[in-house]
Amino acid sequence: MKRLFSRAPLLGVVIPAWGVEDYLDDCIRSLLAQTHRRWEAVIVDDGSTDRTGEIADEWAHRDSRITVIHSVNGGLGAARNLGVQQVRGDYLAFLDSDDVLPSTAYADLVGALSESGSDFATGSIVRWEDGDHVEPPWMRRLHRPLRGARVEDRPEILGDVFAWNKVWRRSFWEAAGLAWPEGVRYEDQPTTTRSFLEGTFDVLDEVVYRWRIREGSITQTRASSVQDLSDRWETKRQALASVRAHGSAEVEDVFVDRVLAGDLWRYFLLVPGASEAWWRLLRAGVLEFWGQRSLVHSGLPPVHRLAGWLVEQDRRAEVSSLMEWASALEGPPPRAQDVATGDWRLSVPHSVVDEATVDPAALRLRDHEV
Q1: Domains present along the chain, CATH in parentheses
Q2: Which of the listed residues 4, 232, 338, 341 has the most CB atoms within 10 Å of its CB?
């Protein structure tokens, strides 16, 4: 009687690398420690000028599952796409070269797909900063377990925009024509959005990724540049176009109000020191995406909903005052109750914003915010 042997599926791992000589060893060690042992990886040295390429070559000499491509610098999206062309595998994953994986990450993700037959799987993450591992509450909320889901089952999952906490079935990746945008920052969102819109997916509550937050890796200097903000708007534009083409009004409402708006508070904080060109670009984007509906209806916290409304009204000085006032608060912003209606609203000092000139909807608190 012929015995049948099953093999674990082959996972192809793409590791773009640029300027990570201090971190690449930790990253590769975490890959070698995976309990899912059947994988192949390609490190794409994206024109590094430090020892990154040399370190990558050393790892390739130590483990035959690792290969290296040395390319001219083309950015993260181009490096990932080049890696996809070279790596083999039934499944596909992306690992940033300054981050690390928990030992069971790929076993959890590949195991879920093997059982469910879904097109891709996503797990939760922790931010690794100053030696601490912290799971963002919003990631924990998004990653309540699901199997074989569609985006209509949990539209807010579109807020899980990361490339590196997921494993795709290679056949789905190719059939959907997926690729990473090139020549633009924030390239994760358009591709992960298309994945959720076009495929079936598994959501795991296990932490599958440790995202190293490096000092200087995300800086106000970069975020306050016109080019950076332009890239942010462009990738939001691409993602929104995919959502609209999908044709679900419910999904689009959640996406616009809760996903697209979710990171705006970072930009509002930069208004006080930003250039006039940056301010004009910020306002243009806000009007493009929320001009018909207004950010007062978004999922932003109360102070940032007010800031968004002020941006819409081109009231930069008051946005600056509001952000400076809010950053000095030691607790939740003060609130007041309307005696006649019983409604609660933000209470902002007159020296910051003249409430009499503000749409009451921009000050109103929701039931869960009282």
Answers
A1: 11-212 (3.90.550.10), 261-369 (no CATH)
A2: 232
